[in-house]
Amino acid sequence: MLKNHLKIALRFFLRNKLFTGINVLGLAIGITAFILLTQYITFEKSYDTFIPDVDDLYRVTLTTNLGDNGFVTSATNHPMTGGAMLSDFPEVESYTRIADKPMAFSGTMNISYTNTFGDEIKSDANDDHIYFADNSIIDLFDLQFIQGDAATALNEPISVILSEKIAHRFFGNEDPIEKMIEVNDNFKLKVTGVFKERPDNTHLPMGMIVSYNIFGPNGDHANSWVWPEFYNYIKLKPGTSQKTVEAKFPEFVKKYLGDIMIEHGFEAKMALQPVKDIHLKSHLLKEISANNSRRYLVLFIDRSGFYHCHCHD
């Protein structure tokens, strides 16, 4: 029976070559589109999931009504927020502060290094994902060190750690540890570590991280409650509920911002934002990088007929 059906089908295909070709081509395009779409969906939904314990990792957001547009939520917060939470909340295991390049440099950032042959290697570092951060960023975001001591790499004020790609750009096959790179012919940074390239599916790509201690212990970068321009990330202890911590924010905000809110006549609120949700669900002021939209992804998939298979959480 099956053999007869195959013969009939083969005869039909041979007599209708154009029709058969169009159908086979359409099938091939459909299968290819399905595979590509599935890969795209999987990639978009996997952002930051490679980080160990990512379920315990959060960004601390700040909502205020300082302007004329009512309450507005920002991805940044005050530089003392994370440290104060570590001190006041037993649920917090660790934290890190991050400042992006515009906080320290305006305009072009040029980096140079003179190698052992006397050749000067220069590079415009504006697209190198440069940040200033506490040493704890290494553990929180699981930076995989190739060279250097991850436990102390960013302790010194002039220390800097580089991605493998950037380290190779400047040093080639030379050992980069303890080498000095110069920024804008103005000051020097000492390379204290090299880490593996991070996966592309992260809201926080990193190429170069300068020690947060470069700002000093006494300035506004370290002690201000009136400068909400810094990214604060915290890690909660295992098993801690996000809602448990957020329930403590009203008193926390009153303790540290109460007098300032009264003086300037505004309100402030804080919340925890899961790091794994940032790429598809966050569109706040001052995002550290461009995110995608879950709504756009759902619409795209729905139009393609794959919504129920791939887009429900």
Task: Kindly describe this structure.
The chain has 313 residues and is an alpha+beta fold. 34% of the residues lie in helices and 23% in strands. The chain has helices spanning 2-15, 17-45, 81-88, 137-140, 164-171, 220-223, 242-246, 249-264, 278-281, 294-304, 307-310, and strands at 57-64, 72-74, 92-100, 110-114, 120-124, 130-133, 145-148, 159-163, 180-183, 187-195, 208-211, 231-236, 268-274. Strands 1, 2, 3, 4, 5, 6, 7, 8, 9, 10, 11, 12 and 13 form a 13-stranded mixed beta sheet that branches. It is globular, with a radius of gyration of 26 Å. The chain starts with a helix and ends with a helix. The mean pLDDT is 87.
Q: Tell me the major beta sheet.
A: 13 strands, mixed
Per DSSP, the total helix count is: 11
What is the first-to-last residue Cα distance?
46 Å
Radius of gyration: 26 Å
Order of helices and strands: HHEEHEEEEHEEHEEEHEHHEHHH
Strand percentage: 15-25%
What is the overall silhouette? globular
Low-confidence stretches: none
Strand-helix topology:
Layout: H1 2-15, H2 17-45, E1 57-64, E2 72-74, H3 81-88, E3 92-100, E4 110-114, E5 120-124, E6 130-133, H4 137-140, E7 145-148, E8 159-163, H5 164-171, E9 180-183, E10 187-195, E11 208-211, H6 220-223, E12 231-236, H7 242-246, H8 249-264, E13 268-274, H9 278-281, H10 294-304, H11 307-310
Parallel strand pairs: 6-11, 8-10
Antiparallel strand pairs: 1-2, 1-12, 1-13, 3-6, 3-12, 4-5, 4-9, 7-10, 8-11, 9-10
